Amino acid sequence: MKLGFIGAGPVGTTFGVRLSEQGYAVAAVADISPAAAERFAGLVPGCRVLGNNQELADAVDMVFITTADDFIPQVSSALKWRPGQTVVHCSGASTVQSLEAARRQGAGVGSIHPCQTFAGIEQAIANLPGSTFAIEAEEPVKATLTDMARALRGDIVYLTSEDKVLYHAAAAIACNYFTTIVKLAADLWRNFGKTPADAIRAYMPLLRGTLANIETVGFPKCLTGPIARGDVATIRRHLAALEKSAPELLPLYRELGAFTIPIGRDKGSLAADRAAELTALLKP
Question: In the chain, is it the N or the C terminus that has fewer CB atoms within a 10 Å radius of its CB?
């Protein structure tokens, strides 16, 4: 089975490289950026750069559309597909409905989304094996994508079209907004004469320890800090300091604190009376 990729960004390139390493025949790539396509081909032995999307679709058995999400339906509807061909995308938020044009022409369709971050190609290639892969497809495409995920040593979760957007929103909270929160915390260091870079150096061991606790101890026991301890006085001081130095962060701090209280209660370290005090203190 010959594979081809329309889109040579980080996601497409990472899949192409890793699937090729596992013995899949990644035969062709096409991209609006010739440089991106050449970079992809340079990393995948035996891969050709083709001049347009239709030429690629005609040359392979299975096409990965790894463009930006908004362009997936456009690419799918612009091409002629053949019965028995397989067309998939790697979007977390888009469903297989974005490939409806290919399905109507007799192609099998599906999606496989790695629950992973793609900040850059080199790091993404390193991160992909062992990821969880969210698969939306019917047989026989489902079996094909399952085999690929297993070849990449991944865990698998099967989703329906109705699941996809909420699944992706959850991943954005866990990954993207985690990044935002760390950035906001690091920026606060400017208020006492240090740099965000100083903060990141200080936080990295803390963050690694936090992730290790989540993985090994799990919720709710992994929660530490003043809310877990029921330290009302400390939270009061936090609020006063933020009101003085970064009042724009107060609503976020209050909301996150309120969502943390039930975790502390589940852990058993936060007494009911202290939880009630914290709830009142954190109200807007």
Answer: C
Which pTM does this prediction carry? 0.91
CA distance 226 to 241: 15
Q: Answer yes or no: are the C-beta atoms of 91 and 161 closer than 8 Å.
A: no
User: What is the C-alpha to C-alpha distance for residues 234 and 239, in angstroms, rounded to an integer?
Assistant: 9
User: Cα(16)–Cα(24) distance, rounded to whole angstroms?
Assistant: 9
Task: With a cut of 90, say whether residue 278 has pLDDT above it.
Answer: yes
Helix, coil or strand: residue 159: coil
* Confidence at residue 101, expressed as pLDDT on a 0 to 100 scale: 97
Same domain, 135 and 79: yes
Domain end marker among 134, 162, 190 = 162
∠ CA 166-172-175, nearest 5°, is 140
What is the average pLDDT score of the chain? Answer: 97
Characterize the bridge pairing of strands 62-65 and 86-89: parallel
Q: How many CB atoms lie within 10 A of CB 30?
A: 25
Instruction: Please report the DSSP string for 56-69 in residue order.
Output: HHHH-SEEEE-S-G
